Amino acid sequence: MTDQTITGVEFYWRPGCGFCMMLDRSLSKAGVPMEKHNIWDDPADAATVRHWANGNETVPTVVIDDIGLVNPSADQVISVLAQKAPHLVPDGWEPPQPGRVANAARRLLGG
Asked: Which domain holds residue 60?
């Protein structure tokens, strides 16, 4: 079921997190709207992350509607957007091909 009231993803991060910076850059470049939450600035934001990350403060954590993604790839985030809020999917985005990474790895390894 899609929800037209979703206006962006909830992006939970903390300063100095390289994974957060990479995901933020990828989603920003793709044009995905985000509301960013620094978990060190607000205890409620840290609690949200702990809820989705089995009691840990693992970031980046992205929440879209009722789905929490802990340390996701940009493709994973956009795949959930395609299900929950297709109006937010960046133009031209295509779902990742299953096995694409595995096939590339096999070619590199000569298999």
From this structure: 9-108
